[in-house]
Amino acid sequence: MNELIIGIDLGTTNSEVAVVEQGQVRVLDDGGRKILPSFVGIDDNGEILVGERARNQYLVYPERTIKSIKRLMGEDTHVDLAGQAYTPQEISAIILKRLKTIAETSLGQMVSKAVITVPAYFSDAQRQATRDAGAIAGLEVVRMINEPTAAALAYHHDQSAAQRMLVYDLGGGTFDVSVVNVEGGVVEVLSSHGDNHLGGDDFDQRIIDYLLDHLRETYGVDASKDSKAMARIVRAAENAKFQLSDQPYARIEEEYLLEHDGSPVHLSVELSRMVYEEMIEDCIDATFDALHIALKGAKMTAADIDEIILVGGSIRTPCIRERLLDEFGFEPHGELDPELCVAMGAAIQAAMIGGQQVDTVLVDVTPYTYGTSAIGMLNGEYYPFTYVPIIHKNSVLPIRKSDAFATSFDGQEVVDVTIYQGEDPDALNNVKSGEFRIEGLQDVEAGNIITLTLELDLDGILHVSAQEKETGLEKSITIKNALSRFESAALDTAKQRITSLFGQMETGPDVVEPHEEEEETSTAPEIEAAKKLIAKAESLFDQVSAEDREDMIDLIETLSNCIKANDIEGLAEPSEQLADIIYYLES
Amino acid sequence: MKTPYQILEVTAGADDSEIRQAYLQKVKNNPPDADQEKFREIQAANESIKDYRSRIRYELFHEQTLDFDALLDQAFGTDQPRQIDHDQFIDLLRAGVEAIELESITIEPEKT
C-alpha cells in the first residue's frame, strides 16, 4: 500500500511542492506557477494572501505583508501582520497550508503528510520550529531532510560508478554546502557546513544600503523611515540584482519615491556588476570558507570532487560560478532547475517513506557537534564550563552516544545539565540548545555517576536523557529551544487561529481555487483585457528565461496595482509592453 | 556479540574497498527508516573497520587486554640473550601501543 506523501521545499524567498507519480517526479503547479513566493499578507477585506499576490501587495502595503519569515524560525519572536502578532511558525504554517491546498487541488485528493526540507545547517531549534509549523498547517511532517541532500537525491540517476558531489546551495536566506558520495544506490552525505543567515537577502540589503546612501548624499533624505518608499527600494534592489546576473550594468529608476521638503524625490542611479560584486565579496568569501570546512570534514580536497551541483536562486550571481570554476577547474551541473530540485528531492524521499519502490537509500549526517559542560581544564586552569562534546559533527544519523559524569560534592542531590551546540572548548562560547535538572539523587559522596545520553534522530532533532547509574533514576527531554517552545495546547490554538484565517478557502480538495481570482466587481473592458493578458503571461512562465519572467512579473505587478486602484489609464502602457513580450515569446 | 567483520559479512583480511562495498550493500538492504538499531549497528561496524587506521585500532583494543609490564618482563627479564620471537614481538608492540596515550596514534575520537 502506497501512501501519498508530498515533498515540500519551504524556502526563504520561494516555496515549492512536488510528488512522485508512477516513478516520475512532478513539481505541482498553481495555475501554471510552480514557484510560490514565500510571502504572506492580509488584503483590504482581511482575507489572507499567500504567494504572488502577497508579494505584489508588499510594494503597496508592506505593513500587512511578511517576507522571508524563514530567517526568524527558531527564534522567540513575533511579527506584526495587519496589527496582529504572529509567531514565525504560524506564518510558515500559512505558506505550508497554501502548498497543501495546491497539492490537493492538483492531485484531487486530501494530503496530510509531508517531507519538508530544511537547510542542512538549521539548528535543533529551527528544525523543531519547522516541525511545529507543519503541525499548525495540519500536516504531519514524516521527515525533515536537508536541502542540499534533497538536491543530491534529485540529481542521482542510478549512476553505477562512484561519484563525489559538492552541493553548493545559496538560497534567499541560508547557505549550505555538503559533500555527498553517490555509490551503489546509496546517497551518502560525508559532511555539511553552512550559515543560517546568509543568502540573496543579504545581497539585496547591500544594494538597499547603497541606494539609501545615494539618496542621503544626493537629496539629504533618509528614506528608511518611509515604509512605502522602502518597499519600492527593496524591490528595485532585487530587480537590479537580477539584472546584474546577465548584464554588466543595472539602471535603477524609481520616480516620485517620496517627498522631501515639499518636492518629490526621484531615485536614479546606475550600478555596475563590478561595484555590486565588491559589495557582496565578503558574503561570497564566507561561502567559500564554509566550502573548505565541508571539504576538510569529508577529508577531501577540491581535486577529489567529480561534480558540483548548484542549488538556490542566488547561484545566478556570476562571480560564484567564476570562483567555483577557479577552485575546481570545471563547470557545475545545471540540468535541473536550481529552484525546483530541492522540492523534487523531497518528493523522492517522501516516495521512499511512503513505500514506493525507489532505488536509493539516503544516509545523512549532523553538521553540528553537541555536548555538555563539566568542570575541567581549559588553558591549563580549572574551569567550570569546559565543553565536553558527545556527538561529533558529520556523524551519521540517527546516532546515540553516552558519556559518564560524576557529581562534584558530597550529598549532591541535584545536577543541572546544559546541552550546547558547537565546537568551542569553552562551552559558554557555544550555542545553548537547552537545559534540564535531575533531582532526587542519592545522598552519597562526590563521584555519583550520572550517564548522559544524547540522541539525534533522522530529522536532526536532539533527544536527551540522563540516568543515575546506581538507582536507574532517569530524566529525559526532547530539547526544544526553551524560549520558542510550543506546547501541544499552544500548537492547537495556533492551528485553530490559522485555520480560521483561511476561512472559506480551506474546505478540501473539491474546492476549485486555482488562481486566487480577483474578486472586484469592476468590469471595465480594459480591466478584463488586462486580466486576460496576465493569465496568458502566467501560463508562459515556465517556458521563459528568468530575465523575461522577471520583466513579466514586474509588468503584471504594475497591472495588478492599477486594477486594484481602478486606474484604467495606467493600464495602457504596461499592457502594451506585456503584450509585446507575449507576442515575442509566441512567435 | 558479533564482530564488525561478522556484521558486514567480510573476512578478517578484507581491504578497504571490499569493506566499503559490503557496507554499501548492507545499507542498501537496511535503510535507516526500516530498522534504526540495525542501521546503527552497520554504521558502528563500518566505523570500526573502514580503513587501515580504524582496523589497527580495532585489533588493538578489542582483542584481549595485554599486560605490557608482564610481557616486558617475559621478554627481557631473563639472563638469556635478548632475543624474542615474532609473536612475542607483536604482542609486546601491541601492548606497548596500548599503554601509551590513545590520542597520540589516532586522529578520530573513538567511535562506539
Q: What is the CATH superfamily label of the largest domain in chain B?
A: DnaJ domain
| Morphology call of chain B | elongated
**SSE sequence of chain B, one letter per element:** HHHHHH
Structural class of chain A: alpha+beta
Q: Structural class of the secondary elements of chain B?
A: mainly alpha
Gyration radius over CA of chain A: 26 Å
Number of contiguous helices of chain B: 6
Structurally, how many domains make up the residues of chain A? 3
Polypeptide structure, described:
- The complex is a heterodimer of chains A (587) and B (112).
- With 587 residues, chain A is of the alpha+beta class.
- Chain A has three domains: 275 residues, 2-Layer Sandwich (Nucleotidyltransferase, domain 5); 109 residues, Substrate Binding Domain Of DNAk, Chain A, domain 1 (Sandwich); 62 residues, Substrate Binding Domain Of Dnak, Chain:A, Domain 2.
- In chain A, the strands form seven sheets. In chain A, strands 1, 2, 3, 4, 10 and 11 form a six-stranded mixed beta sheet that branches. A five-stranded mixed beta sheet of chain A has the order 17-12-13-14-18. In chain A, strands 20-19-22-23 form a four-stranded antiparallel beta sheet, with no helix packed on it.
- The radius of gyration of chain A is 26 Å and the shape is globular.
- Chain B is an all-alpha fold.
- Chain B has two domains: 62 residues, Helix Hairpins, CATH 1.10.287; 49 residues, no CATH class.
- Chain B has six helices and no strands.
- The longest helix of chain B has 14 residues.
- The C terminus of chain B is likely disordered.
- The chains are: A alpha+beta (587), B mainly alpha (112).
- Chains A and B meet through β18 and β21 of A and α2 and α3 of B.
Q: What is the strand and helix layout of this fold?
A:
The complex is a heterodimer of chains A (587) and B (112).
Chain A lengths: L5 E5 L3 E8 L2 E4 L8 E2 L2 E3 L5 E3 L1 H9 L4 E2 L12 E3 L2 E3 L1 H20 L5 E6 L5 H13 L3 E7 H9 L7 E8 L4 E9 L2 E10 L4 H20 L7 H20 L2 E12 L2 E10 H7 L1 H17 L9 E5 L6 H11 L12 H13 L7 E3 L6 E9 L2 E11 L7 E8 L8 E7 L9 E8 L10 E8 L5 E7 L5 E5 L9 H15 L22 H15 L6 H20 L2 H19 L1
Helix pairs in contact in A: 2-3, 4-10, 5-6, 12-13, 12-14, 13-14
Chain B lengths: L3 H5 L7 H14 L6 H14 L2 H11 L5 H9 L9 H14 L13
Helix pairs in contact in B: 2-3, 5-6
